[in-house]
């Protein structure tokens, strides 16, 4: 346990330093992208799709919310570290392997960008595996990284479009508007979608009992991310018609597929938690009568509201802490039942049970029958 905690602190420290250090050259690149007014306008426009996209991933992440600090680090990694690393790799690669602009757009950019974005997920898998409980967690973290990357990239594209330095025309309001519509309105999901394939691979690796799958799943996810990214970029070289075909025939179905997969994973988490906590209750780790108030989202909200109305903010915080400890125990116990328990299973499980035992006497539910839908 001490080693795992140490690894977690090292991960947070190293990633935080990389984000801060990388933010400096990113700010410099953005500042040189155009006049101050242009950069400010581009930044505001690029920020508009960020909130709704992030909210979608937070909505998916409701059963066991990931630490906000890690989600912010994911955004920062995408917006700063991944951008700088991709630019460096593409620049160095261009010195040794000269490629055309088309080759760079369709091949080099997808390979390098998905690698540096996916590096955050691999680092989580290596140092913070305890925060990854499955496919949905991988998608959520991938979404954060992809959203951060898209934010910085959109600033550069919007500024270039307005200044007319993107090679697409004289620039101005019309060019800025068309770029905003394509990148921020029609495809704000693009980078999160690409990286989601790597996230799915990492999530499958965490839950698999087979060594081959644990190694192959992240690699396969990365290759799918590169393929999807490459097709998307290549479509822009074929004019509006080619872009429309790829958008409608490949990208839209891929988005729906990943979205459906994430929604299925979110829905199945309730059933999984019910089974895992049922087994945990049979072992005396928590009262069986509390399970419905933990695994049902509507019941969870009602329990917190009841606690707030009867005991104020302090009672609501106790209820929230109890539910969170039970959820954490449920995910951990599920991995134990599957045979994929982490090395610190006993100590983590003991800590959750201790938290449950400490808080439960001060938690009051509005009844032991979960309200029907």
UniProtKB/TrEMBL annotation:
Could you tell me which InterPro entries the record lists for this protein? PrsW
Q: Which UniProt keywords apply?
A: Hydrolase, Membrane, Metalloprotease, Protease, Transmembrane, Transmembrane helix
Membrane-spanning parts: 12-33, 39-60, 72-97, 103-127, 139-160, 180-205, 212-232, 244-265
List the residue ranges forming a coiled coil, or say none.
Answer: none
Name the Gene Ontology molecular function terms of this record: metallopeptidase activity
Q: PANTHER family from the xrefs?
A: PROTEASE PRSW
Name of this chain's protein: PrsW family intramembrane metalloprotease
Origin species: Nocardioides bruguierae
């Amino acid at each position: 346990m001490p080693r795992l905690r140490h690894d977690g602190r090292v991960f947070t420290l190293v990633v935080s330093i990389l984000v801060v250090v990388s933010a400096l050259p990113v700010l410099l690149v953005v500042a040189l992208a155009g006049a101050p007014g242009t950069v400010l306008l581009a930044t505001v426009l690029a920020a508009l799709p960020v909130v709704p996209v992030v909210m979608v991933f937070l909505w998916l992440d409701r059963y066991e919310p990931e630490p906000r600090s890690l989600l912010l680090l994911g955004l920062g990694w995408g917006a700063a570290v991944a951008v700088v690393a991709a630019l460096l790799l593409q620049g160095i690669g261009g010195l040794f392997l000269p490629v055309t602009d088309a080759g760079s757009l369709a091949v080099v950019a997808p390979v390098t960008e998905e690698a540096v974005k996916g590096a955050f997920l691999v680092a989580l898998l290596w140092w913070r595996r305890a925060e990854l409980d499955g496919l949905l967690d991988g998608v959520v973290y991938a979404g954060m990284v992809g959203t951060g990357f898209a934010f910085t990239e959109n600033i550069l594209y919007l500024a270039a479009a307005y200044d007319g330095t993107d090679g697409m025309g004289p620039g101005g309001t019309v060019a800025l508007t068309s770029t905003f519509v394509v990148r921020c309105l029609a495809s704000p999901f693009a980078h999160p979608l690409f990286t989601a394939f790597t996230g799915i691979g990492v999530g499958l690796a965490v839950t698999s009992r087979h060594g081959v799958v644990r190694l192959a799943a992240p690699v396969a996810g990365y290759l799918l991310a590169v393929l999807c990214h490459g097709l998307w970029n290549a479509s822009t070289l074929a004019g509006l018609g080619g872009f429309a075909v790829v958008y409608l025939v490949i990208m839209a179905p891929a988005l729906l597929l990943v979205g459906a997969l994430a929604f299925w994973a979110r829905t199945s988490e309730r059933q999984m938690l019910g089974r895992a906590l049922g087994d945990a209750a049979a072992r005396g780790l928590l009262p069986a009568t509390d399970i419905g108030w933990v695994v049902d989202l509507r019941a969870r909200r009602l329990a917190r509201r009841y606690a707030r109305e009867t005991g104020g903010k302090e009672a609501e915080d106790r209820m929230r802490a109890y539910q969170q400890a039970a959820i954490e125990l449920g995910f951990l116990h599920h991995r134990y039942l599957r045979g994929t328990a982490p090395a610190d299973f006993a100590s983590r499980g003991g800590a959750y049970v201790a938290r449950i035992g400490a808080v439960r006497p001060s938690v009051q539910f509005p009844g032991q029958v979960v309200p029907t839908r």
